[in-house]
Structure formats: structure tokens, C-alpha cells
Write a structure and sequence with these properties.
The complex is a heterodimer. Chain A is about 40% helix and about 25% strand. Chain A contains nine helices and ten strands. Chain A has helices at about 40-45, 70-75, 90-100, 105-120, 135-150, 165-180, 195-200, 215-220, 225-235; strands spanning about 1-10, 15-25, 30-35, 55-60, 65, 75-80, 155, 185-190, 200-205, 210-215. In chain A, strands 6-7-8-3-9-10 form a six-stranded mixed sheet, sandwiched between helices. Chain A has a four-stranded antiparallel sheet with strand order 2-1-4-5, covered by helices on one side. In chain A, strand 9 (about 200-205) and strand 10 (about 210-215) form a beta hairpin. In chain A, about 45% of the residues are buried. Chain B has a single domain (about 1-230), classed as Orthogonal Bundle (MetI-like fold), CATH 1.10.3720. Chain B has helices spanning about 1-15, 20-55, 60-70, 75-85, 100-125, 130-135, 140-150, 155-170, 170-180, 190-200, 200-230. The radius of gyration of chain B is 20 Å and the shape is globular. The N and C termini of chain B lie far apart (about 50 Å). In chain B, about 40% of the residues are buried. Classes of the chains: A alpha/beta, B mainly alpha.
Chain lengths: ~240, ~230
């Protein structure tokens, strides 16, 4: 589905990512985890075509990605950030926006928006202003907005980190159910290994802008392979 | 005090009886000011958007010029528009000096920098992460700009209020390019000055009250619209 070869990214002469290789198979959820400053969010931005790498190649569904990513390809992906980043309008309109820009018919928009708002338990808020929502509700709306597009690849950039523990747990459970139903191909960035172990089939641990190790979350916990990785994972093992 | 009281009485009389000349002046003022505001929106919003979103060499310098333009003296605008529209001037062939069109042009020049600067400032204040999110929704460039402008709609209404306020209250440009011709280019501000110069304070007070009501009425409508959207969004 998505492949990155030897990706390097520099900003102001500082190397953020170095020689990253990455692949994503249809239907899988890959977790990117690492401490602050390890480059995981930067890698997500490059994989989601929001930033161009300094060097390296990107392939999407077998096609090489040019520097100016075609709109048709950009429209095959959806991104949810740490903050909900909703527009100052009604909840319904926020979820509908990605469909409207794609020129989808009003009836389909109505059906899809209502369906996804229901999936995330916020259908009753559809007529409310986005400004009146709590953090958890807003993030549910943000997820509904992303799923409503029915993307080929979904990118989640620390979607739970701004939420309190009970809200986070509830949303993680609901998201896990949605993944099981939709089999959406996903890249999940988190600094919490619990998110990765709950939702991802495979995990990459990034340290200092490089992929340190890769494997299934449970396997990585059992056998971290490197000292630095073991030190990082020790917190989550306890 | 007596003069003021007489002036207020005359104003009420003129307002209640619907004096034809006053009605004509008021309607012309409204027509010219609304046209000027509309044109300044068509110039100011795209220009402010360009300044906010498109990096180019000398952008800061251009922005400083636009910001300076917010305080552009109307009489200076009137002078330069007169020079350009004067019969022997570069656009003299248009033959529009001393017409309402000339006043609309001058007023649009006065309000455009205000609209552009406030649009630019509002866009630059939007959260960069929100801009990234809008891009990530798969928007084309025009869709991206439209969504951003929708997001700053309350600030845009404030810009319209500021632009209209500057236009409806100016006198220097209207006098210079319109000439204050009775029945043709006489607007509330120029008529008020004329009546003051003639010593007709009662009529001048009446006209000033109408001008204030006009400015307040238009601003009230825009403010109510702004607050309604703010509350209903």
C-alpha cells in the first residue's frame, strides 16, 4: 500500500530522519513509537505527503510519489492529529467537509456523516457547534471526519495524548472495534506503548531519527533487541 | 444652547417629514458608501489573502505599505484621484470627475487597505496546525482558501464594519472628486460642511444626526450578523 525507501529529512541543517525504510500492507495497523524528538511525527508527515523528504523515495499503491503530490493521491488518505482541529461550525459540517470538497452528493454525505458520528457515539451532537464540545467529544468528531472519507490509508498522530485516562480508554476501545470492522490500513503514532499494543499489528521503534527495531508489539516487549530500546520499553513493561 | 435645541428640532422635523432633498442626499450617500465598501471587499480580501498565504520577496515591505494605508488621509486620496481623473489627467477620457463614480473609486481606495490589512492579520492568526488539517482534508487551493476565509468570517465582518465606517464618515475625498454638486454628488458629509459654512446649523445638525444614524444602523446590522453567527456556530 505504502512504501518508503531510504528516507532522510533535514531541517535547518539538522537531520531529523535518517535512512528510514518503511512499508505498510493493506489492512494492517503499524505503530510508530519513540520518545519525544525521535522523529515519529516527522515521519508521519512525510508518509502522509505533508512534507517532502530531503532524499529517498515514496511509493503509494505501487506508484512513485513526485514532490508535488497529485490531488487524487492526497485524497486517498486521512489524518487525525493530536488536537481535534475542528472548524468553527456545526459538528455535522465538520465531518461533512472532507466529502464536500470531493464533490460527493448531499444524500451520500448525510448518510455517511450520520453513520460515522454514530460509530463514534457522537451522533446526538451533530447539530452542536464544535466549540461546545469536550476534548474527548471533539476527538471523536475528528476521527469520524477521517473515517467518513473512507481513506485508503489513515494516519493517526498521537490521537489520544490530549485526553484524560478514562476518555482515552473509551476511545481506544471504540477505535479498536472500528478497526476490526473496517480493516482500515493505518499508521498510528504514539509515545504510549499501550496505544500501540492495543491497536497495532506491527510496531517500529524510532530512536534519534532512525528505526531502532521493528516487530509485533508483544514480541518487542519480550525481546527489545537493543539496550536503548529496552530502556525505553521498560517504563511500559511495568 | 438654543441653537442646538433648534437644530435638533429641525432635524426631527426633516426626518419626520421626509424632506426630499435630505432623502435624496441620504440615499446617494448609502448607495456610494455601499458600492465603495463592496469594491474594497473585492480588492481587499484577495489581496489580504495573498499577503497572508503567499510568500514572495518584499512581502513585509508591501504589508507595511498596506498597514500604512489603513491611516491614509482621505483628502490625499481625493487629491490623487482628482489628478488622475482630471480632464487632462491619465484617465480624463473617462469623463467621470465630479460624478458619484469618482467618489466610489476614491472611497474604495480608502477602504481597500483597511480590508486587506485586517484580512491578512486574521489569516496570519489562524492556527498553523488547523491550516495543515485543512490541507490534509484533500482540499484544492481554492477550497483551502475558502475554508480559511470561512474560519475567519467574524474578523472579516469586523473588517467590513471598519471599511464602511471609514468610507461613510470621510469628507476630503468626496469633496475633492465629487465637488459637492447639488442633486448629483452631494452626500451627507459634504452637505453638512456646506450648511455649517452657510451658518445653517439646524440643517447641519439634522444632516449629522442622519449620518450618525446611517453609520450606526449599518454597523448594527453587521454587528448583529456577526454576533448571531458567533452564537450559532
Amino acid at each position: 500500500m505504502l512504501e518508503a525507501q531510504k528516507i532522510t529529512w533535514k531541517q535547518d541543517d539538522k537531520t531529523i530522519l535518517q535512512n528510514i525504510n518503511f512499508h505498510l500492507l493493506p489492512g494492517e495497523c503499524v505503530g510508530l513509537i519513540g520518545p519525544n524528538g525521535s522523529g515519529k511525527s516527522s515521519l508521519l508527515k512525510i508518509l502522509a505527503f505533508l512534507e517532502a523528504p530531503t532524499s529517498g523515495l515514496l511509493f503509494f499503491q505501487g506508484h512513485s510519489i513526485p514532490k508535488n503530490v497529485p490531488l487524487a493521491i492526497r485524497r486517498k488518505i486521512a489524518i487525525v492529529f493530536q488536537e481535534p482541529l475542528l472548524l468553527n461550525t456545526r459538528v455535522f459540517d465538520n465531518v461533512a467537509i472532507g466529502l464536500k470538497v470531493r464533490g460527493i452528493s448531499k444524500e451520500t454525505i448525510r448518510q455517511r456523516v450520520n453513520y460515522w458520528l454514530e460509530q463514534f457515539g457522537v451522533l446526538h451532537l451533530s447539530k452542536q457547534s464544535s466549540r461546545s464540545l469536550s476534548g474527548g467529544e471533539a476527538q471523536r468528531v475528528s476521527l469520524a471526519r477521517a473515517f467518513a472519507i473512507e481513506p485508503d490509508v489513515l494516519f493517526l498522530d498521537e490521537p489520544f495524548s490530549a485526553l484524560d485516562a478514562p476518555t482515552k480508554e473509551g476511545l481506544r476501545v471504540d477505535l479498536s472495534k472500528v478497526f476490526k470492522t473496517t480493516q482500515t490500513t493505518t499508521v498510528l503514532v504514539s509515545h504510549d506503548f499501550k496505544d500501540i499494543s492495543h491497536l497495532a499489528n506491527r510496531a517500529l521503534i524510532l530512536l534519534n531519527g532512525q528505526v531502532a527495531v521493528e516487530g509485533s508489539p508483544s514480541e518487542l516487549l519480550r525481546n527489545p533487541q537493543q539496550k536503548d530500546v529496552a530502556r525505553f520499553l521498560a517504563y511500559f513493561a511495568s | 444652547m438654543e441653537m442646538i435645541w433648534k437644530g435638533i428640532q429641525a432635524a426631527i422635523h426633516l426626518l419626520l417629514t421626509g424632506d426630499p432633498e435630505v432623502v435624496e442626499i441620504t440615499l446617494l450617500t448609502l448607495k456610494i458608501s455601499c458600492s465603495g465598501t463592496l469594491i474594497s471587499l473585492l480588492i481587499g480580501i484577495p489581496f489580504g489573502t495573498l499577503l497572508a498565504l503567499k510568500p514572495f520577496p518584499g512581502r513585509r515591505f508591501v504589508l507595511s505599505i498596506v498597514n500604512t494605508g489603513m491611516g491614509l488621509p482621505p483628502v490625499v486620496v481625493g487629491l490623487w484621484v482628482s489628478i488622475f481623473l482630471w480632464r487632462s489627467g491619465p484617465f480624463g477620457f473617462l469623463n467621470i470627475i465630479y460624478t458619484p463614480t469618482a467618489i466610489v473609486i476614491a472611497q474604495a481606495i480608502i477602504a481597500s487597505p483597511i480590508i486587506a490589512a485586517l484580512t491578512c492579520a486574521a489569516l496570519q492568526q489562524t492556527d498553523p496546525k488547523l491550516r495543515l488539517q485543512i490541507r490534509a482534508l484533500g482540499t484544492t487551493r481554492p477550497q483551502y482558501i475558502w475554508l480559511l476565509l470561512s474560519e475567519i468570517r467574524f474578523s472579516l465582518l469586523a473588517a467590513i464594519i471598519a471599511g464602511f465606517g471609514a468610507i461613510v464618515s470621510e469628507i476630503g475625498a468626496s469633496m475633492a472628486v465629487g465637488g459637492n454638486i447639488k442633486g448629483q454628488t452631494r452626500v451627507l458629509t459634504t452637505a453638512t460642511v456646506l450648511e455649517v459654512s452657510k451658518g445653517n446649523f439646524d440643517i447641519a445638525i439634522a444632516l449629522s444626526i442622519i449620518l450618525c444614524l446611517l453609520a450606526y444602523g449599518a454597523t448594527l446590522c453587521l454587528t448583529l450578523l456577526q454576533q448571531k453567527q458567533q452564537g450559532g456556530s
